[in-house]
Amino acid sequence: xxxxxxxxxxxxxxxxxxxxxxxxxxxxxxxxxxxxxxxxxxxxxxxxxxxxxxxxxxxxxxxxxxxxxxxxxxxxxxxxxxxxxxxxxxxxxxxxxxxxxxxxxxxxxxxxxxxxxxxxxxxxxxxxxxxxxxxxxxxxxxxxxxxxxxxxxxxxxxxxxxxxxxxxxxxxxxxxxxxxxxxxxxxxxxxxxxxxxxxxxxxxxxxxxxxxxxxxxxxxxxxxxxxxxxxxxxxxxxxxxxxxxxxxxxxxxxxxxxxxxxxxxxxxxxxxxxxxxxx
Length: 279
Description:
By secondary structure, this protein is mainly alpha-helical. The protein has helices at 2-31, 34-66, 76-85, 93-100, 102-113, 122-156, 158-164, 166-176, 179-183, 187-191, 196-204, 220-223, 227-251, 256-278. The protein is globular, with a radius of gyration of 27 Å.
Protein backbone atom coordinates (compact mmCIF):
# COMPACT_ATOMS: atom_id res chain seq x y z
CA UNK A 1 0.00 0.00 0.00
CA UNK A 2 2.85 2.32 0.86
CA UNK A 3 4.50 1.56 -2.48
CA UNK A 4 1.30 2.45 -4.33
CA UNK A 5 0.97 5.76 -2.45
CA UNK A 6 4.63 6.48 -3.09
CA UNK A 7 4.25 5.83 -6.83
CA UNK A 8 1.14 8.04 -7.00
CA UNK A 9 2.99 10.82 -5.16
CA UNK A 10 5.97 10.56 -7.49
CA UNK A 11 3.65 10.60 -10.50
CA UNK A 12 1.93 13.75 -9.23
CA UNK A 13 5.29 15.43 -8.63
CA UNK A 14 6.43 14.40 -12.10
CA UNK A 15 3.29 15.82 -13.72
CA UNK A 16 3.64 19.06 -11.79
CA UNK A 17 7.28 19.43 -12.85
CA UNK A 18 6.40 18.78 -16.49
CA UNK A 19 3.56 21.29 -16.29
CA UNK A 20 5.85 23.94 -14.72
CA UNK A 21 8.55 23.27 -17.32
CA UNK A 22 6.05 23.58 -20.16
CA UNK A 23 4.65 26.80 -18.68
CA UNK A 24 8.16 28.24 -18.36
CA UNK A 25 8.94 27.34 -21.96
CA UNK A 26 5.70 29.01 -23.12
CA UNK A 27 6.47 32.18 -21.18
CA UNK A 28 10.05 32.28 -22.48
CA UNK A 29 8.82 31.78 -26.04
CA UNK A 30 6.33 34.65 -25.64
CA UNK A 31 8.90 36.98 -24.07
CA UNK A 32 11.45 36.48 -26.82
CA UNK A 33 8.84 37.31 -29.46
CA UNK A 34 10.00 40.24 -31.55
CA UNK A 35 6.51 41.73 -31.80
CA UNK A 36 6.57 42.36 -28.04
CA UNK A 37 9.70 44.46 -28.57
CA UNK A 38 7.89 46.32 -31.34
CA UNK A 39 4.93 47.02 -29.07
CA UNK A 40 7.28 48.20 -26.33
CA UNK A 41 9.04 50.63 -28.65
CA UNK A 42 5.70 52.10 -29.80
CA UNK A 43 4.58 52.65 -26.19
CA UNK A 44 7.96 54.19 -25.30
CA UNK A 45 7.63 56.68 -28.17
CA UNK A 46 4.11 57.62 -27.03
CA UNK A 47 5.40 58.22 -23.50
CA UNK A 48 8.30 60.36 -24.73
CA UNK A 49 5.89 62.42 -26.89
CA UNK A 50 3.61 62.98 -23.89
CA UNK A 51 6.54 64.13 -21.72
CA UNK A 52 7.81 66.45 -24.49
CA UNK A 53 4.37 68.08 -24.80
CA UNK A 54 4.00 68.54 -21.05
CA UNK A 55 7.48 70.03 -20.60
CA UNK A 56 7.05 72.29 -23.63
CA UNK A 57 3.82 73.67 -22.18
CA UNK A 58 5.65 74.47 -18.92
CA UNK A 59 8.49 76.09 -20.86
CA UNK A 60 6.02 78.27 -22.80
CA UNK A 61 4.43 79.42 -19.54
CA UNK A 62 7.83 80.10 -17.98
CA UNK A 63 9.23 81.87 -21.03
CA UNK A 64 6.18 84.15 -21.25
CA UNK A 65 7.40 85.78 -18.04
CA UNK A 66 10.70 86.69 -19.72
CA UNK A 67 9.61 87.41 -23.30
CA UNK A 68 5.78 87.51 -23.57
CA UNK A 69 5.85 89.08 -27.05
CA UNK A 70 7.61 86.08 -28.57
CA UNK A 71 4.88 83.91 -30.05
CA UNK A 72 5.75 80.22 -30.32
CA UNK A 73 5.83 78.91 -33.91
CA UNK A 74 3.40 76.14 -34.87
CA UNK A 75 6.33 73.73 -34.79
CA UNK A 76 6.88 73.45 -31.04
CA UNK A 77 10.36 72.00 -31.50
CA UNK A 78 11.39 75.23 -33.22
CA UNK A 79 10.12 77.21 -30.24
CA UNK A 80 12.28 75.13 -27.91
CA UNK A 81 15.31 75.59 -30.17
CA UNK A 82 14.64 79.35 -30.29
CA UNK A 83 14.60 79.58 -26.50
CA UNK A 84 18.12 78.16 -26.45
CA UNK A 85 19.54 80.86 -28.77
CA UNK A 86 17.51 83.94 -27.77
CA UNK A 87 19.05 86.59 -25.56
CA UNK A 88 16.39 89.30 -25.37
CA UNK A 89 18.93 92.09 -24.88
CA UNK A 90 21.20 90.93 -27.66
CA UNK A 91 19.38 88.73 -30.18
CA UNK A 92 21.51 86.75 -32.60
CA UNK A 93 19.26 87.33 -35.57
CA UNK A 94 21.20 85.04 -37.90
CA UNK A 95 21.01 82.08 -35.49
CA UNK A 96 17.33 82.74 -34.79
CA UNK A 97 16.50 83.09 -38.50
CA UNK A 98 18.03 79.67 -39.13
CA UNK A 99 15.36 78.24 -36.80
CA UNK A 100 12.19 80.27 -37.38
CA UNK A 101 12.92 82.13 -40.63
CA UNK A 102 14.16 85.62 -41.42
CA UNK A 103 10.78 87.38 -41.18
CA UNK A 104 9.90 85.88 -37.77
CA UNK A 105 13.43 86.54 -36.48
CA UNK A 106 13.24 90.23 -37.52
CA UNK A 107 9.87 90.55 -35.75
CA UNK A 108 11.24 88.94 -32.59
CA UNK A 109 14.24 91.30 -32.62
CA UNK A 110 11.94 94.33 -32.96
CA UNK A 111 9.62 93.19 -30.17
CA UNK A 112 12.54 92.44 -27.85
CA UNK A 113 13.51 96.12 -27.86
CA UNK A 114 10.29 97.15 -26.10
CA UNK A 115 9.42 93.93 -24.30
CA UNK A 116 7.28 94.08 -21.17
CA UNK A 117 8.90 90.89 -19.90
CA UNK A 118 10.51 90.63 -16.49
CA UNK A 119 14.18 91.42 -16.05
CA UNK A 120 15.55 88.05 -15.05
CA UNK A 121 19.09 87.43 -13.91
CA UNK A 122 21.45 85.09 -15.73
CA UNK A 123 20.71 82.22 -13.34
CA UNK A 124 17.00 82.26 -14.19
CA UNK A 125 17.65 82.41 -17.93
CA UNK A 126 20.19 79.60 -17.64
CA UNK A 127 17.59 77.34 -16.03
CA UNK A 128 15.06 78.05 -18.81
CA UNK A 129 17.65 77.22 -21.43
CA UNK A 130 18.59 74.06 -19.53
CA UNK A 131 14.96 72.92 -19.66
CA UNK A 132 14.85 73.66 -23.40
CA UNK A 133 18.05 71.64 -23.95
CA UNK A 134 16.55 68.73 -21.99
CA UNK A 135 13.46 68.80 -24.23
CA UNK A 136 15.68 68.75 -27.34
CA UNK A 137 17.48 65.71 -25.95
CA UNK A 138 14.08 64.01 -25.63
CA UNK A 139 13.36 64.81 -29.28
CA UNK A 140 16.64 63.12 -30.20
CA UNK A 141 15.75 60.09 -28.07
CA UNK A 142 12.34 59.90 -29.76
CA UNK A 143 13.96 60.01 -33.21
CA UNK A 144 16.35 57.22 -32.19
CA UNK A 145 13.44 55.05 -31.00
CA UNK A 146 11.53 55.78 -34.22
CA UNK A 147 14.45 54.57 -36.32
CA UNK A 148 14.66 51.41 -34.20
CA UNK A 149 10.88 50.94 -34.47
CA UNK A 150 10.94 51.24 -38.25
CA UNK A 151 13.67 48.62 -38.59
CA UNK A 152 11.89 46.29 -36.15
CA UNK A 153 8.53 46.75 -37.90
CA UNK A 154 10.09 45.82 -41.25
CA UNK A 155 11.44 42.66 -39.61
CA UNK A 156 8.32 41.62 -37.65
CA UNK A 157 5.51 42.69 -39.99
CA UNK A 158 6.90 43.70 -43.41
CA UNK A 159 3.50 43.49 -45.11
CA UNK A 160 1.68 45.72 -42.61
CA UNK A 161 4.63 48.13 -42.57
CA UNK A 162 4.53 48.50 -46.34
CA UNK A 163 0.73 48.84 -46.54
CA UNK A 164 0.09 51.12 -43.55
CA UNK A 165 3.55 52.38 -42.57
CA UNK A 166 5.90 51.19 -39.77
CA UNK A 167 4.49 53.62 -37.20
CA UNK A 168 0.88 52.49 -37.63
CA UNK A 169 1.99 48.84 -37.75
CA UNK A 170 3.81 49.23 -34.44
CA UNK A 171 0.90 51.04 -32.78
CA UNK A 172 -1.63 48.42 -33.88
CA UNK A 173 0.50 45.58 -32.52
CA UNK A 174 1.19 47.49 -29.30
CA UNK A 175 -2.54 48.12 -28.88
CA UNK A 176 -3.63 44.48 -29.18
CA UNK A 177 -0.53 42.87 -27.65
CA UNK A 178 0.88 40.74 -30.46
CA UNK A 179 0.97 40.20 -34.20
CA UNK A 180 -0.91 36.92 -33.84
CA UNK A 181 -3.81 38.62 -32.03
CA UNK A 182 -3.96 41.27 -34.74
CA UNK A 183 -3.90 38.63 -37.47
CA UNK A 184 -7.07 36.90 -36.24
CA UNK A 185 -9.09 40.10 -35.98
CA UNK A 186 -11.63 41.01 -38.67
CA UNK A 187 -11.02 44.15 -40.71
CA UNK A 188 -14.00 45.86 -39.05
CA UNK A 189 -12.29 45.56 -35.66
CA UNK A 190 -8.90 46.70 -36.96
CA UNK A 191 -10.60 49.75 -38.45
CA UNK A 192 -11.65 51.08 -35.04
CA UNK A 193 -8.74 49.90 -32.85
CA UNK A 194 -7.84 52.82 -30.62
CA UNK A 195 -11.37 54.26 -30.73
CA UNK A 196 -12.88 51.95 -28.13
CA UNK A 197 -14.22 54.77 -25.95
CA UNK A 198 -16.16 56.24 -28.88
CA UNK A 199 -17.41 52.77 -29.79
CA UNK A 200 -18.68 52.09 -26.26
CA UNK A 201 -20.45 55.46 -26.23
CA UNK A 202 -22.20 54.47 -29.45
CA UNK A 203 -23.18 51.08 -28.02
CA UNK A 204 -24.68 52.75 -24.93
CA UNK A 205 -26.44 55.42 -26.95
CA UNK A 206 -27.36 54.64 -30.56
CA UNK A 207 -27.96 58.34 -31.20
CA UNK A 208 -24.18 58.82 -31.08
CA UNK A 209 -22.54 57.91 -34.39
CA UNK A 210 -20.09 55.00 -34.31
CA UNK A 211 -16.39 55.76 -34.89
CA UNK A 212 -15.16 55.34 -38.45
CA UNK A 213 -11.49 54.91 -37.61
CA UNK A 214 -9.03 54.62 -34.75
CA UNK A 215 -5.25 54.34 -34.96
CA UNK A 216 -5.32 54.05 -38.74
CA UNK A 217 -6.61 57.64 -38.97
CA UNK A 218 -2.92 58.61 -38.82
CA UNK A 219 -2.47 57.26 -42.35
CA UNK A 220 -2.04 60.24 -44.65
CA UNK A 221 -4.66 58.99 -47.11
CA UNK A 222 -7.27 59.12 -44.33
CA UNK A 223 -6.23 62.15 -42.27
CA UNK A 224 -5.79 64.40 -45.32
CA UNK A 225 -9.01 63.35 -47.06
CA UNK A 226 -12.42 65.07 -46.77
CA UNK A 227 -14.37 63.98 -43.71
CA UNK A 228 -17.18 62.54 -45.83
CA UNK A 229 -14.99 59.82 -47.33
CA UNK A 230 -12.67 59.00 -44.42
CA UNK A 231 -14.83 56.09 -43.30
CA UNK A 232 -14.71 54.43 -46.74
CA UNK A 233 -10.96 54.90 -47.02
CA UNK A 234 -10.44 53.57 -43.49
CA UNK A 235 -12.51 50.49 -44.36
CA UNK A 236 -10.45 49.88 -47.48
CA UNK A 237 -7.17 50.25 -45.57
CA UNK A 238 -8.35 48.02 -42.71
CA UNK A 239 -9.21 45.26 -45.21
CA UNK A 240 -5.66 45.34 -46.58
CA UNK A 241 -4.11 45.48 -43.10
CA UNK A 242 -6.09 42.39 -42.08
CA UNK A 243 -4.75 40.46 -45.09
CA UNK A 244 -1.23 41.77 -44.49
CA UNK A 245 -1.35 40.72 -40.82
CA UNK A 246 -2.34 37.16 -41.73
CA UNK A 247 0.51 36.95 -44.22
CA UNK A 248 2.99 38.27 -41.65
CA UNK A 249 1.77 35.95 -38.91
CA UNK A 250 1.20 32.71 -40.83
CA UNK A 251 2.35 32.36 -44.45
CA UNK A 252 5.32 34.76 -44.19
CA UNK A 253 4.80 35.59 -47.89
CA UNK A 254 5.40 39.18 -48.99
CA UNK A 255 2.16 40.31 -50.62
CA UNK A 256 2.32 44.00 -49.70
CA UNK A 257 2.94 45.29 -53.23
CA UNK A 258 -0.30 43.74 -54.45
CA UNK A 259 -2.24 44.89 -51.37
CA UNK A 260 -0.89 48.42 -51.65
CA UNK A 261 -1.77 48.61 -55.34
CA UNK A 262 -5.33 47.41 -54.59
CA UNK A 263 -5.67 50.00 -51.83
CA UNK A 264 -4.40 52.81 -54.07
CA UNK A 265 -6.89 51.76 -56.74
CA UNK A 266 -9.77 51.74 -54.26
CA UNK A 267 -8.65 55.10 -52.86
CA UNK A 268 -8.77 56.67 -56.33
CA UNK A 269 -12.24 55.22 -56.93
CA UNK A 270 -13.51 56.70 -53.66
CA UNK A 271 -12.04 60.13 -54.38
CA UNK A 272 -13.33 60.21 -57.97
CA UNK A 273 -16.79 59.24 -56.78
CA UNK A 274 -16.68 61.97 -54.12
CA UNK A 275 -15.58 64.62 -56.63
CA UNK A 276 -18.34 63.51 -59.00
CA UNK A 277 -20.99 63.87 -56.28
CA UNK A 278 -19.81 67.41 -55.46
CA UNK A 279 -20.28 68.62 -59.04
